[in-house]
Design brief:
The chain has 28 helices and five strands. The chain is mainly alpha-helical. The protein has a five-stranded parallel β-sheet with strand order 2-3-1-4-5, sandwiched between helices.
C-alpha cells in the first residue's frame, strides 16, 4: 500500500473514534501502519486504543514499534511503563518510567507512576523519595498525596498516612480514594468507629470504589452488614478493568471478611487467589544456600575469635522468630515497662551485614567471609548502632528490636553485642505458616505466598535455630505464643525477669501501650489477650496438605 495513503487511514481512524466505534478505528489505524510501518502517529493511536480496551499486550507491541523508530519518544516510553505495570513486568515498567524521567526530570506523572511500581515491588523508601519529588514539583496534586498515604501505610506510619489522605481530600473534596484511604488508616490505628463515620455517607448506594469497599468490609463489626460487604467485594472482583494491585487487595480483604465470619472455604479461596497475584518469586536454592553459608561461616571457633568484648550501658534485646509468631505481642508487653524503649522492626542489623570490611578496608561478602571482618570495623558498627538507639532509649537501660528475621543474623549480633539478649518467639508451626499465607506483606518475605515455599523456609529457619542453640553464647529465652496466651502473667513475668527488670503490673496491659505497632499484627496487639488464633489451622486443615507434606515431620507437633 503506498505510504501517501497513510494519512487517509489515520484521518478515518480519528473519525471513527469520535463516533465511538473503537473496533473500526483499530482497523483503520492498522491499515495506516501497514501502509507505513514507521508511522508513529498510527502506532500511537493504535496503542492508546488497546490500552483503553485493556489489551495491554497489544498496546505494548505498538509502543515498542514507536521506540524502535524514535528511542526518545516520551509518550511511548511512558505508555510502555503503564503497560508493563499492568502486565506485571515490574522491572521493565521501572525502566520505562526511568527513561521518561531521564528525558524529562520534572515529569510528575512519571515520578508518581515509578513510585507506584516501586511500592508494588516492596521498595518503599525509594517510592517515598520519588513521591516527595513529585509533591515538591506539584504541591497541589491530590493523587500524589494519596500515593504518599499508601507508602506511609506500607511503612506502618498510619498517622502520617491518614494525614496525607486528609490533605488529598482538602485539595479535592469528595475524592473517594482519599476518604477511603484515611478510613483504612484509621482502621489500622484501631479506630473502626471513626473509619465508618468517614465512609458511612458514601456507602448508601452501590460501592464501585476498591478502597471504599475494602474499608466497608473492614468495618463489618461496626455496621453488621456482612452480606452487603461481601457482595460488594465479589462484584468488584468480577470487573475486568481492575489493576493487578486492586485485585490482590480485594482478594485479601475478602479472605479476612470470610475468615472473621467463619466461612472458611470461601476465605481460603480468596487468600489463595490473592497470593497468586503477588509479584514476588521465591528461590529455594538461594534460601538453602543462605542457610548453609550461615551455618558454615558461624562456627563456635569463629564466633569466639570475632566477638567484640566491649561492654555497653544499653542492653539490646532482640525479639526474633518467624513472622506472625508473637514478636509484636512480646515487644508490646515489654514496651509497657518503664525501663524499656521499643524500637520496633529496625533494619540496622541486615544493613550492617552488607557493609562489613576487612582490616584493609575492603568490603567482605557476608556471611561466608565473616571470619575476615576487621575487629576495628566491627567495633565501629557496634558503636554507630548504639548511637542510633540513644533516641529510642531516652536514658532507659533496655532497647528492643523485633525484626523477626534477625534470626538470620544471631551470629553477627553476638559478634557486635556479646551482652545482647535474645527472645525467640515460637508458635504452632501450622498456625504460623497459615498466618503467613493469609497476610499480604508489603515488602520482602518472598516465600510467604505459596504453601510449599512457606514450608521450605520454615524448615530452614528451624534448622538454623538449632545451629544457633549449639554455637551461641548469648542468653536466649524461648517463648511459646500459646503459653503466653494461656498463662499470661506467668509467662510475662518470665519475660520481664529475663530482661533483668523488676516486675511492673502495667506489662499485663500491653494493649493500652501508646506506641503504634507498625507491622501486620497491629490489630491483634491493640486488644486484650485472646485465644481464638490458637489451632486456627484446624479450620483449614483440608487445604493445607501441600504445606504439611513439605514440612519436616518432626515439626508437626500440631496437638
Amino acid at each position: 500500500m503506498p505510504p501517501n495513503r497513510t494519512g487517509r487511514f489515520i484521518r478515518e481512524g480519528y473519525r471513527l473514534l469520535q463516533q465511538g466505534d473503537a473496533g473500526s478505528a483499530i482497523k483503520a489505524f492498522q491499515q495506516a501502519v501497514r501502509s507505513n510501518s514507521r508511522s508513529i502517529e498510527g502506532w500511537l493511536q493504535l496503542g492508546q486504543i488497546y490500552m483503553r480496551l485493556g489489551n495491554f499486550s497489544e498496546a505494548e507491541n505498538c509502543f515498542q514499534h514507536i521506540t524502535g523508530i524514535d528511542q526518545n519518544h516520551l509518550i511511548a516510553h511512558g505508555n510502555l511503563g503503564i503497560c508493563y505495570h499492568r502486565l506485571q513486568k515490574l522491572d521493565a515498567a521501572i525502566s520505562g518510567f526511568r527513561k521518561v524521567i531521564q528525558l524529562q526530570p520534572d515529569n510528575v506523572t512519571a515520578l508518581r507512576h515509578l513510585a507506584t511500581v516501586l511500592l508494588d515491588k516492596g521498595e518503599r523508601q525509594q517510592a517515598a523519595t520519588l513521591c516527595g519529588q513529585a509533591i515538591k514539583l506539584q504541591p497541589d496534586f491530590s493523587g500524589a498525596y494519596i500515593l504518599r498515604g499508601a507508602i506511609h501505610n506500607a511503612l506502618g506510619e498510619f498517622e502520617l498516612a491518614a494525614a496525607n489522605y486528609r490533605k488529598a481530600s482538602k485539595l479535592e473534596p469528595g475524592m473517594l480514594n482519599a476518604i477511603a484511604g484515611e478510613a483504612n488508616a484509621l482502621i489500622k490505628l484501631g479506630d473502626k468507629e471513626g473509619a465508618f463515620a468517614l465512609i458511612g455517607p458514601h456507602v448508601q448506594t452501590t460501592v464501585d470504589n476498591v478502597s471504599l469497599a475494602i474499608a466497608y468490609a473492614s468495618t463489618h463489626e461496626i455496621h453488621g452488614d456482612f452480606r452487603r460487604a461481601a457482595d460488594q467485594l465479589e462484584k468488584l472482583l468480577a470487573s475486568p478493568t481492575l489493576t493487578h494491585s486492586e485485585r490482590l487487595q480485594l482478594h485479601f480483604s475478602a479472605g479476612d471478611l470470610y475468615d472473621r465470619t467463619k466461612l472458611f472455604d470461601e476465605a481460603f479461596h480468596h487468600y489463595n487467589m490473592g497470593n497468586r497475584y503477588v509479584a514476588r518469586q521465591y528461590s529455594l536454592d538461594a534460601d538453602r544456600s543462605r542457610l548453609d553459608k550461615t551455618r558454615t561461616a558461624f562456627s563456635a571457633d569463629t564466633l569466639e575469635r570475632l566477638t567484640v568484648t566491649e561492654q555497653t550501658m544499653t542492653t539490646l534485646v532482640f525479639i526474633v522468630g518467624m513472622p506472625r509468631s508473637g514478636t509484636s505481642l512480646v515487644e508490646k508487653i515489654l514496651s509497657r515497662h518503664s525501663q524499656v524503649g521499643a524500637g520496633g522492626e529496625m533494619p540496622y542489623i541486615p544493613e550492617i551485614s552488607v557493609s562489613l570490611r576487612d582490616s584493609s578496608g575492603n568490603n567482605i561478602s557476608y556471611p561466608e567471609k565473616i571470619a575476615d571482618a576487621g575487629i576495628a570495623n566491627l567495633r565501629q558498627h557496634a558503636k554507630q548502632h548504639l548511637q542510633r538507639l540513644e533516641l529510642i532509649a531516652k536514658g532507659r537501660p533496655i532497647v528492643t528490636d523485633k525484626l523477626p528475621h534477625n534470626f538470620l543474623f544471631l551470629g553477627l549480633i553476638q559478634t557486635l553485642f556479646p551482652d545482647a539478649r535474645i527472645i525467640h518467639c515460637r508458635r504452632n508451626v501450622l498456625d504460623t505458616c497459615l498466618s503467613n499465607y493469609f497476610q499480604y506483606f508489603s515488602s520482602g518475605l518472598d516465600y510467604a505466598y505459596n504453601l510449599e515455599d512457606i514450608a521450605c523456609h520454615y524448615n530452614y529457619y528451624s534448622e538454623l535455630m538449632t545451629h544457633w542453640r549449639q554455637v551461641l553464647n548469648l542468653d536466649m529465652l524461648e517463648i511459646d505464643y500459646e503459653m503466653l496466651v494461656e498463662k499470661q502473667e506467668e509467662t510475662t513475668r518470665k519475660l520481664v525477669d529475663f530482661c533483668g527488670l523488676q516486675w511492673e503490673p502495667d506489662c499485663l496491659s500491653f494493649h493500652k501501650a501508646d506506641e503504634v505497632t507498625r507491622t501486620a499484627s497491629y490489630a491483634q496487639v491493640r486488644q486484650p489477650m485472646y485465644s481464638h488464633s490458637i489451632k486456627r489451622w484446624r479450620n483449614y486443615e483440608k487445604h493445607l496438605q501441600p504445606l504439611i507434606r513439605q514440612l519436616i515431620p518432626s515439626l508437626l507437633n500440631t496437638g
